[in-house]
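User: Show me an example of a complex going from sequences to structure tokens.

Assistant: Sure. Here are the input components:
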Amino acid sequence: MAGRVHETGVCILGSGITGALVAERLAEQTTARITVVEAGDRIFNLDQRFERRDRFLDYRENPWPDDHIRGQTGRGLQSRSMCVGGLGLHWGGTTPRFTPEDLRLRSLYGVGEDWPVEWEELDAFYQEAEERIGIAGVQGPPELDPRSRDYPMPALPLSYNLEKLRAWGERSGIPFWPNPVSKNSRPYRGRNVCVRCDTCTICPTGAKYSPDFTLQELLARERIELLDRTLVRRLVVGERGRIAGAKALDRDRPDEPLELRADVFVVALGYAWSAHLLLLSASDRAPAGVANRSGLVGRFMSGHRPYNAFVEVPEKLYPGIYEMDSLLSKSFQRPGDIDRYVRHDLRIWESDFGRRPRLRSDDGELLLGEDLLADWRQRGERGAARLRAYYDVIPAEGSGLRIDTSRTNEWGDPMFRIEMQPAPETSELIPLAEAQIEGVFDRMIAAGGGRLLERRVSREIHDHPAGGCRMGADPATSVVDPYGRSWDHENLWIVGAPTMPSAGCNNGTLTFAALTLRSAAKLAALLPPSGAEPAIPHRAEVAA
Amino acid sequence: MSQNVHPRDPIRPSASRSPTRRGFLGAAVATATGVGLGSRATAGQPSAGGDPVGDRRRALLRAVAGHALPADALGEDGISEQVAAFERWSRGFEPVAELDHPYIWSDELVYGPPDPRPGWQAQLDGLDLEARRRHGAGFVELPVGHRAELLREHLERAVPAGLRELPFAAEAPHVAIALLAWWAGTSGANDLCHGAAIGRHECRGLPSAAQRPEPLAPPSRADRGER
């Protein structure tokens, strides 16, 4: 059957936060024709989000009911979100930067790999990402929270509960400051100010950044084409190692083959689906998969492990003032000289742990009516906090994704299985990391008062996963060059989370975004320039 | 709204979920019509004598609520309002709905329970039937002490000993627990517990976040259904 061909200049695969930022950057800086391809649906529904929020609150229903594709999943996948905007629709909007140590793990601590990026260069791309996305924050102590410029928006005001908890936490001598977030503290780039609905998984006002806003803006300006419901199944390697095209499937016309042709392909599919596509694209010209002469596609994946503690504090708190907001400290991300490699972040939230209404008393009596209310009130006289540390887990080479032929999607494509493995050099440090975190929690309780209610360490969880196509300076030990360009295919770029050699020890999305913009800047320099002023100038270039 | 809202703001005037206890108690007054737990086709309308089964179950649920919910704190009218709101909630329930998949670690989708309402209706009927067989009068007509005792016996049988936390209302093992769990999850219940207008499920603006929530006004005699 004769198929259709879509030809473009730059074909961006994936419409999550990294795809949207590449598209925006290239659209401003170049005249290239840009196509964004997304397997999932287009959910441009700002006018329906209050209703979705209500049903989410009332019935726990998915507030994004069309955000996935049936059967398109893998074992160990972080999230089923697959739609225009990607996981960026669901995300909580937490956007701390990494610290300079994350880029120099081998040099400073003898673990993992150094990143082929200088902090000063990354700082400028962090800033650009913060300005494009719209981040509200305030710098912490400069020695703990280095940055060269202010946030584009002031921090959200701390809630009554968090002010109390900051005072409580800082009695330990550990400084805390507002966690930076992609939620507007003032109207920003055409979006609303946050009105504290506290359901950031679906922000009904659009005050939380999500990539659909960027893509809608680019569509309105006719600066991109968006092929949604279009699943890319294989990349095709052509002459001289160039990516000649992509075999795709229009989910509305699945029997009609669709070929995408472009001068440049940008894979912006996140940590899992990027490696999955490259491995599925194995052919005579790329027997181990596209971009995989090193054999490292799908390898060196990692995330950070969460260690939570729930603590009763000697304060009356009011659960529900702003549960999504939190405090941050980077004291243990910048540990200075240490004998063994242990680094972690530290956050504090208000919590209703142990303060929720319950059905039975401690002695098992059924609680109804006034008895339930009295029990609830009694337990609520003192507040509770959630403390959480993410500690860094350096990946083993074998940590990551493999094609799983036992499971296919409805079009017959094999799916995958992800298994995370810490590197031997860090496995032995895990008890040390957890003991240190317990010590920090104990220190806070001893200084601030209160008591530990429960600790929860989740060794099977690796949050904010990254890697699978790591960047480096050596083609033998990396999948892409320091800017995300494939060593094997000159017109193939991989951006964001997959390129990271390690996943750090705090939320990764802002770092995914900053690295993506760095890739986009490099790619843009190879494309016809627009000559137009960008909406968000890159400060390092401006300074130059 | 005190916030500086962008002109494109889609915030709807009706977005608020009553932020105060008074509002919470009063929200359903206008629509407290007694809607039963029946299907969308038959529930929701006062029967005017045409739906004796619905009326009887509605009265049963109201009587159950008097023991399951904190009657002193809510007052007579408050209890009735909560029952009406619970009935509205149950009517809006969609069986086996796709549930929220968390932001992280959700490689498989999760679906909610089937329709619990037929089971709840049967439980109300069973409660009434047992009252008649034991005491010669329907559950609604029993003295308060007998009602409380019978309901507790039913719940001790229906609720597993290992169930210590309130479940999601639609998964509750008994209609009385469903009602209680639903109520306890409301903003109003959280406010009532803490004696403050927290407005947990409201969109409340940023500046007020920094303030200690205002104390709830004590319920008036009218709130409490007193004359």
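The lines above are the inputs; the final block is the predicted structure for all two components together. Chain B touches chain A through 77 residues (CB under 8 Å).
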